[in-house]
Amino acid sequence: MEPVSTVEEANIQKVVAFLAMPLETVPEPVTLPTPAARTTVLPVAKETTAVLPLSCPRTWIPCRDGSECIAHEYLCDGERDCKDGSDEEDCSQLCDTPGAFKCLSGNKCIEEKNHCDGVQQCPDGSDELGCWKPTQDCALRCDGNMRCIPESWLCDGNPDCLDEADEQGCVHEECSKSEFQCKSGQCISYSLRCDGDNDCKDHSDEEDCAVPKPLLCRLGEVKCPRSGECVLKDWLCDEDIDCKDGTDEQDCEHEKLHCSAMQWSCSSGDQCVPDIWRCDGERDCRDGSDETGCEPRKCQSHEFQCGTHDCLNYTLVCNGKKDCTDGSDEGGKCLSPCGKPCSQICYQSPDGPRCACQRGFKLSSNRVSCTDINECKEQEPCSQTCVNTNGTYSCACHPGYLLEPDAHTCKVTGSEPTLLVAIQSELLLYGLRSLKEDVLTTTDKNLIIFSIDYDLVEQKVFWMDLNAESIKWITMNTKKKGTLVKGIKSDCIAVDWIGRNLYWTDGTAGELLATCLNATWRGNPEYTVVLDGDLDQPRSLALQPLQGLMYWSEIGDKPQIEQAGMDGSNRKVLIDEGLGWPTGIALDLLSWKIFWSDDKLHCIGSANLDGTGIKVFQLSQIKSPFSVAVFEDGTYWSEMKTRTVQKVDKKTGKNRTVLIKRHGQPYGLKIMHEVLQPMASNPCRELGCSHLCLLNPNHKGSCRCPIGEVLADEKNCIPLKDSAFMFLVAPTVITQVYLKKLSPAAGGETLPEHRVFPLTNVDYLTAIDYSVRDKSLYFADREDGYIRLLRIKDSGKLSWKRVVPVGGTVVSLALDWLSGNIYWIDSRNPDIRVATSNGRYALVLISEKLYHTVSVVLHPPTSMMCFADLGMENHSAGPKIECASMDGSRRKVLWRKSQMPVGLTFGDFGTRLYWADHMKGVVESIQLDGSRFRLIRGGLHGLTLFAAGEGMMVWTTPTRNGSTRVWHSKLELMENWWFQVDQKIVDLKIYSKFTQQGSNGCSENNGGCSQLCLPNHQGRVCKCTVGYHLEDGTECTRAVTCPEPLEACKDGLKCFTREQACDGHNDCLDGSDELACNYLDRKKPRSTTAPTPAKPGFRKEEEVVAPTRVQTTTKRPITGTQYPHPKGTKYPRRKTPAIQTPPPYRESRTTVSNMWEYTEEPSPSPESVESGPEPQPCSSETCNMRGDCTIEEDRVKCSCMLGYSGDYCEKTEVTSTTGPIILGIAVVLLVVMAMVGAFVYMRRQHTRKRTSSTASSRTLTSYHKDSDLGEEENLT
């Protein structure tokens, strides 16, 4: 019974209320159903004599004495639950009822429907015993029903039960119609029947053959004396019977062998065994000499060492019986009591009391206490996973494997493992359990299948055809064939079953390559180079897609095994010692080891995946290994000399077995099973690469491109010719280097992959710029006097011509690749000049407050321009970096703390400027608004040139021998990669097709301007060259040409005489005839033209007296003006003409006055391209088209038409009519005179136009006769 204290509180309250009631009012008895297995009724008080009737809940039964209730399942369960034991009485009657099952532990019975229902109802669980049903994972129970055997293990020739029940009662399966059944029951392909090779283990496939045995054997073969078949000479005396008569293993005389440093020479001298077999407790030499002379075995802590060095269990010591052969276990101090404070065992010995430890422990240094032995590290007893525990250990298996009865060996479950091997021109399948042989495919007899691999996802087998230089595939179920890639040379292939790629090595080119696993050959290479460079004849390759790693061997001058990410990252050398010629490698992911076969050292080696724990087996049967594979506890390899496929234990190198022995040469081999290609998520699936995606060690994917293409961003590929590149400008040669071809390696002595543009007739290049879209290269020669254009044609030819004449040596050149305008700085003056792409129109853009400009750079999409000015020595104007709009407006000083800035470059989409400082050896940057200045790099001593772009920065330093070292690094990283160029570099630029994109106000149709279109932040400004003036904001019209001795107004609209200059009257519409005048009294000149605005400083009505002109010059275009450029020389300032306001460009809601800023138009440049014609004779233009012009005594005189007057017919007369008659006569006269005047005017106008056109044409032709000179040459 359970105590009252365990009853729920609510029930206790009911009981208390019941006990408090008078006896005569006792109601129905209260029952106490508890959640426990048994429920009892609480006893009433002693003074109460009445017995309450017992009421049990449903499914519960009362005991016979009525004192308690028990649950129904406790009835007849073999335990007394009622005090009177009534629950276990008459149980035989219940079990005898139909449909009852009696438990084995007692009289407990359950209903038959609960028998073998998966839930134990019997206390001893006997109702679920013997309920097993065969499944694929448990097809047989053996060893007292304590072990399950998978279906794939049944009758596989390897006993897996201790009683070998899995190999009993086996009946060989019937072979298919396409197979031949050997006498032993083995199935082989009919194509192997009577082919001269013993494919059946009992050789029955070569019996009763209709084809007669050959009379003569092939080269390298011998005929068996009695049975008559041909066998290889290397098969004689190889310890394997190959002749049916066994004569190949008879009368064998073993030659004296010279054992290597890794072998032990048996005393017989005719046998070598691996040195690790020496004294391992097993006889490996035929004469047993490998186990003689060995040091005595060290006894364990629970053992006693006899005088003969034998080990005896401590329980047999001092027992009165001599168990050691020399009796050393008895006598002495055996009678001494064991009083040592041993932590585990104390026993008596002839030497007195000793401490001992139980199995799995060892005595510590104090010889009293015991410590645990870590068997997993000291012994490696398990084939896969070892778990050490206190005093013992246990073995475990990876998923897909089960532990064998020996509790140490793991065996694979699932389908039968199959050996896939390439033999000459055949692909052979060999069942490792059933020994079934089948030919998957046969290629042309002249072709050789060199390397193989498989993909279980698509059930494909891939192979490399050595002679056809291709990789092909075949499906295992439908036998469909295809070609993955052609035109490649490969030594080994490997399948990435997770990332869905196929890799291969090219030993000739020294490359590791990869392509998509499901690629279809269409004539174009769709593969990528994963690794190249310093690979020294890569041979074998193995992948670990679960970790994103690959391993390969190199057989060059320095044999080694290396590891890298499957995308080529994190490369490192794994093993570089003890290797001869590692022809094959394989991974064992269960033990985390790598195995390799060595053709030079005739061995098979292994090591941990970190390169430690190297172990080598050098067997006499390993003569010329080609390929190696690892599966379960075995190592498999193909032997070229003996033409066999063999197997040994992967830990000991023992238990050698010959699996396949044929006349054909075996090459590549693989073990096929699903546990060797475990499935996992593919990180490339969600990455969205345009072409290839390679796994990397970070469990992610890396997008890669086929040969000839590079990544434009993180995912998309573009042709290499469209990717970013840099121009290295030498004095006479321009070299193009693609940024994607820059190798992250320090100390490269040669240029990366590059392209050279040789320039003929070039003395010394000084500056360049390039339009990627037009393939147009603008460059300047030191002594040429021109900016030239080089067009790179698709045919590979170079076509160049002179474009813009310059006054001095161009020190900086910048191209607006949207509009085609050319900006430059020359050595004769500090101005920034601009010209159209064809050089027809040019002008000085910025000249004020410039002293020693050395660099100009543009960002056409944002219409921004920045330039560096070194200032003047011993002058307050120091070095500075300025920025402005590309029309010269909105000038702003950006930075003043540089000493000698070079290589100005826009970044971050035109919002940041980068540059290097030659004097300070630093790289700096700043936002265009003057904020967020950053020091990018420091310590770049000797820096001369700098460029940045596409996330890279490049700079140069000179060397002592006159060459140049070109450094490169990712922007804002501390990388220092470099390569060397054997000449001086004078300019350096980076270009990209994707950075030269966008638009500005001049990118389409020249912005609607007839001459120069200059973009700014609001749109564009149209400008005219010298000799033209702007009309309607876009059109440039030729200014009037004034004959001697007349002078032209600055706006080019009128002419005026010397007398009219500084006469106090504004004769020019722009008032330029009254500029630079010294008046005797400061009175404003009278204006002769009403529309001209008054000049500041003059009143309108004042008269002027006898003005004198300071300087009078003839307004002609001038050329040849020279400006010296020594350091410390200040350039002469230029005055600017009056400003013009252009109309708004395109449609805009902003008004003209708000949208456009007034920009000072520079004065005409001495080198301006477009100039006016030569002075013309006096014409009607001189008289403003209102009269005839004549010259009398060197003075111009105009005969004005009716209604006009003035020296140049500039005034309009107002006549009054006095009467109808006079008016009529006047009208008639006017009409007649008008007709005559019109006739004369039209003739003279026609003559003037012909003259003007001829002169203009002659002037332009004369000017451009040099500019049109060009040459064309082939690109070499």
Query: How would you describe the shape?
Result: elongated
How many H/I helical runs?
Answer: 5
Distance between the termini: 108 Å
**Which parts are unreliable, with pLDDT below 50 for 5 consecutive residues or more?**
1-50, 1081-1177, 1214-1218, 1248-1269
Count of distinct strands: 90
CA-atom Rg in angstroms: 52 Å
Helix content: under 10%
Structural account:
The chain has 5 helices and 90 strands. By secondary structure, it is mostly beta strands. The radius of gyration is 52 Å and the shape is elongated. Mean pLDDT is 80; it is low at 1-50, 1081-1177, 1214-1218 and 1248-1269.
Protein traits:
receptor; hormone binding; single chain; 5 helices; elongated; 1276 residues; mainly beta; 4-stranded antiparallel sheet; glycoprotein; transmembrane; 5-stranded antiparallel sheet; disulfide bond; 90 strands
